[in-house]
Amino acid sequence: MIDMTPTGKTYKMSSNFKKILLTLRNSPGLNSIIPILTNFLFQQHEGVVMNGILKKTNLARIILANAFNLHFNLEFHLHILIKVLLSFITSNKLSINYTNNDVPGELYLREISAKALATLIVRHEEKYFNLKYNIATTLMGIFEKEPSNYHTLYGILKVFFYLDPNIIKDYLLKRLAKKLDISQLFADMYRISEVGSRELYKEKPVGHGQPPNAPKVAYSIQSTLAQHVYSALLELCTKVMSNLPLYSSKSMYESVNLYNFVTDIFGEASLVASSNLTQSGPFGEIVEEQNKESIQRFGHLSICL
Q: Considering only CA atoms, which of 139, 150, 148, 180 is closest in space to residue 264?
C-alpha cells in the first residue's frame, strides 16, 4: 500500500464514510440502490476537476466495496463500472490542481482501482469467460501506444498483479519484453532533478545514518514513477516465479526476449539491494518486502538455466 503521508493532503476516510463502505460491502438488502449508485458513479467520474484524485479515490472505494458484496447483482451494471475504473487506471490527468506532492495519491488511486477491476473480473469470469482477456487486450493496447507513460503503466501493472500468474506470464510479460525499454526505465529510476526544478518531488538522504546536514538528492517525478513501476514489475515477476514451476530450460519463458527481460528485472534487484538508494522511498519497500524472496528465486532459476 502506498504511504499517503508525503501528500500533504487528507486521504483518510471519515468515520461516516467508513460506515457507508462497510454497509455497501456487507449488507444483503441494498440491491435496489445499485442502479442509482451506478448512475451516480458514472456521472461523477468524468472530467478533470479540482482535488480530482481524492474525489476519484472515494468513487473507487465505493466500487471496490460493491465488488466485494456477493449479495449485489452487478451483472447489468458491469460495463459502466469497468469503464469508470479503466478511466481511473489509465487517465493521464486526474486532477486540475495536480502537484508534485500528489504522486503518492495518484498511485494509490490507480492501485485501488486496479484491485476493484480485478475483483469484478474474477467475480464474473466464470460466466463471461472472455472478460479477462478482453480487458487485458484493452490495457495492453493503451500501453503499446505510450510505453513510456509511467502513470498509466503503473495502473496497468497493478491490474495484472491481482490476476492469476498465467495471464501475467503469457499476456503481460511477453508484451512488456517487446515494447518496454527496460534500459530507459533503469535510467529514469536514477534521474536526478536540479534543486528548484518544477519536477522536484521530494528530497531523500544520500545514505542511511548520514548526519542531518548531509547533502541530499532530489528525484524528479519521472524518477519517482519509474521507481514505483519497477517495484510493480518486481512484484509481478516474483509472483510468476512463486506460483509456476521452474523447469530445467528456458522453455518456460518461450522466448529469449522474455527470459532476458525477467533476468534484467531480477538483476537490477541485486544492484538496488546494495545501493544507498534503498534507504528510503519505494526502493526501501522493494528491499524489505520483495528482494529477499525474489533474489533467492532468481538464484535458483540461474542454477536451473
A: 180
Give the side-chain half-sphere CA count within 13 A for 61.
18
Residue 10's nearest CA partner among 107, 88, 105, 96 is 105
Query: How far apart, in whole angstroms, are the C-alpha atoms of residue 290 and residue 275?
Result: 15
Q: Which fold has domain 13-163?
A: 1.25.40
- CB 258, CB 177: distance < 8 Å: yes
State phi, psi for 271 to the nearest 5 degrees.
Answer: -70, -40
Grid cell at residue 99: 502537484
Which distant-in-sequence residues (6+ apart) come within 8 Å of 129 by Cβ? none
The x, y and z cell numbers of residue 230, run together, are: 519497477
Q: Which residues of the chain have pLDDT under 50?
A: 1-10, 193-217, 247-250, 271, 273-305
Least Cα distance to 238 among 265, 259, 257 occurs for 265
In DSSP terms, which residues pair with 220 in a beta bridge? 200
Residue listed under C-alpha cell 493496447 = 141
The span from the CA of 122 to the CA of 264, in Å, is 31
